[in-house]
Amino acid sequence: MERLESCNSIWLIDEVLMQFCRVPRGCDPANAVSAPWQRYYAFSDDPNSGAFRVALDETRTRWLSSCRHRDPCPRCGQEMTGEVVMAPPPTAAAGGSAA
Ligand SMILES: [Zn+2]
Question: Number of structural domains, the chain?
Fold first, then answer.
């Protein structure tokens, strides 16, 4: 069983049964048991670019392609390190050092 991580999903690829399924990243891959598996007819992988794709039909005209998530990731790295602005807790305003 091949396991590939793209920026949005974890791909599980069963090369014996020629089936794959995708579960959202952050989910426990064990939950993939309940995820829908799809038949594929070919698997193409480019380790250099990180791109990979599966053929959805026998004639290999329809492909589902994705790209591996890397660390650091040029595709979603900026998003991962983005700042989150949060409001201070209500108690922070009270009881501080008064002027
Ligand atoms: Zn990524």
Answer: 1
- Would you say the pTM of this structure is higher than 0.70? no
CA of 39 to the centre of ligand 1 (A): 25
Strand pairing report for 38-39 and 42-46:
unpaired
Q: What is the mean pLDDT of residues 84-98?
A: 67
Any domain includes 92:
no
Only one residue has tokens 């026998």, namely 58
Q: Write out the residue range of the structural domain in which residue 31 sits.
A: 2-74
pLDDT tens column, 42-73: 999 998 889 999 999 999 999 999 999 988 88
CA of 89 to the centre of ligand 1 (A): 32
The Å distance, Cα 25 to ligand 1 centre, comes to 10
